[in-house]
Amino acid sequence: MNKTYYEILGISTSCSVSEIKQAYREKLLTTHPDKVNNSNVQQDEISLIKEAYRTLIDSDSRINYDKSIISHSKLKGFNINGGGLDLYSLEDFDFDEDNVVWSKTCPRCQFPEGIKLSETELEQNGTGDNQGGYDIIVQCNSCSLWIQVKYYDAV
Prior knowledge:
Structural class: alpha+beta
Strand content: 15-25%
Oligomer: single chain
Helix content: 25-40%
Shape: elongated
Mean pLDDT: 84
């Protein structure tokens, strides 16, 4: 699961039906080939926007979709809220420009680069916090410590 339907439409998970409708219209206007002079717009992108709208506008479909997001995250081992974990900022990590990886010495076992995050992991597994930021839960490669990492779009 790369992007959620909420992310595709650019809305929060707590949005109203009218916000879904407005976001859908705006998204179509910015991507529809007849409305923009951009030949790079893919038909797949428009199909995803329509699919996201159909799912989120119907209350039963939306409830089932929300449950599937939670189930998918649990299967992958990602805790959606990270309650009770130590919180760190991605700015606390060292950045390796060559490999596009953030790393941090584990605060518990002191294993160098024990906690690592790639750009792909951040993009695919981060959970929006509805305040412009994202959270991800990550485990040390050496010990059993899990931490919550907060980061923002400018990754």
